[in-house]
Amino acid sequence: MLKLNIRAFFFNAQTDYLPYYKNFSFRVEADKTVLDLLSMIKRQNPDFSYPKENVILRVNGLVLTANEKLSTVANKLGTELQIDPALTYRSNNGLVLNDSDFMQSFELLSNYTTDTDRAYYQSLYPLHYASASFEYNHQYIGDAVLLLASKLIEQQPENEEAILAIINDEFNGLADCEYENNLFHTQNHAQTIANLKSRIYKKRKVSLLNRLCSLAVKTKKYTLDRETLHEHNLALYVGDRDSLEVIESTRETVKQSGATFIDFPASVRISGQTLIVSNPELAHKKAGKMLLDALDHGADTLLFSNSEDLATFTKIIGKCEKVVGRPINLNLIALCEFQKLTVMLEA
Question: Does domain 2-97 have CATH number 3.10.20.30?
């Protein structure tokens, strides 16, 4: 048996001004599904709503289908679960979405598709609503149609230019896409998106990157001091939900060094790195949001597990400050530099 503590989303567009949450506790058999859990919540509170079919939802930030076994969910996410619509702002009633945008995006490419292509696109329904880009642009066309476009270009190279023109909408298209796996079951389509962007932006890449670097305000390199290490609050940015082991090992190393380790939600989120060329303004906005998240959770120093990420954020932090309208007083340093320092301390 599993004991689950649930925080469930409630909202009815006809009667509620704002969404709210209610708490539930259940003991359930491990082989029950998420759909069974939704039914249990519904029995306790008839105001709770979810679709009658094709049910997708967000549990602790990850999108999954209601057919998922609760044992699998608990094994990955624990027993404290928050249930939200797959995309909150499209909720009509609880987990019921206004999903008209899904097939509207498909129609953009319908002249180039077959019934098989339509079926493939419909299989991407959870992925469409898992896209992080919707957080910044509610009119975004979705990751799913970009994957369809890539498939169609492979099948119909003669139509590549026309297909690229359709998905490269100036305000809502490919330029806004930074693929991030927000699905319960990992799907990594980052390379597919990168390949699409390279077909459009390859001529701009070098010159724009050079220009961004020349515009950077903050480029100083910071080094921690052994004598004052215990006074610092250190956070770690990994930019990947699958790097939790790195976070845990770093947490222990920081603790042993005498410093304080700071957790912050955005540590595992990709934060504008792949948007530098296609949409620099959005890149600065996402990067700034991540940096402020670390700062506002109490960090004074941000470690980076990836040296390329460190280089990117060091170069654009000044632009990020302008976009978010706040100073970002964080010291940025490579994780490997901190690790070298702890070895010296042990010696």
Answer: yes
